[in-house]
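Agenda item 2: zinc ion complex prediction
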Amino acid sequence: MLIRAFGSIFLGGLVCAACITSAQSPKGGAGSATQTSAVTTNHPVAWPNGAHAAVSLTYDDAIQSQIDNAVPALAKHGLVATFFLTGTSGYLQSNPDVYKGLVAKGHALGSHTMNHPCDRSQPWVKPGFGLQDYDLARMQKELEDNVQQLRDLGQKEPFSFAYPCGSTWLGENHESYVKLIEPLFVAARGVRPAVTDPSSEDLMNVPSPMGNSSGADLVSWVERAVAQHGWVTFTFHGVAGDYLPVNAEAHETLLTYLEAHKSTIWTERFGTIASYVKTKRAAP
Ligand SMILES: [Zn+2]
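Presented output:
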């Protein structure tokens, strides 16, 4: 965890000198030297206003049921969310003003690439658009084009990212493309189902349980985050429609719970929470 924590603060361009501590390796047998190496810890991160946990609601792929069903529900409960946009989404291309409107309402738009490449073993991946078909230059172009789309829709920096299918690799040799993400984005969301420890988690691959579950299960994730003073980021696709859907009742159960507990649970846009975490980790 320390190595990952070091990576996240170093790669964010923020190195906390006070966080560098010395650690001695276990002593070996007679004649072995005692080695001293630098390891890094972050400052513990406490949530603002004494909140017990943080929650991010994220909606992937720019699909219509999110606009039709999630956005009104969010408004009803006074909550904001993050929409990770696939640049070639037909719904997005036909309705850019809808997405400009989301920014105006206080939601965030994030990047999800242009063509949503995933492992070509997935049956729905179009020929030529598997992650195996990509190299770093092709992915870089997609990321830059997608970020430009976000700018054109009114989203301001810092931008955030969600890995399509949660995959952090490309090419036949599964080369990591995280090094392309770090300079462009404050944080990136993965798909490992876990509560995030804000003091140590790698912000370039933030865990996230899938949202297509029961209301009780979604609330139980929030309760786990409260117990750990952690951060849970939900990944939704369809909302009462489209694919991998959460049903309207389960979505409503979660949002009702978050509104009822807003004095102790900080529900905020993914990138805003990540920016807060970065700042607190690096604080003198
Ligand atoms: Zn996706």
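Discussion summary: The chain has one domain: 54-282.
Owner for follow-up: CH.
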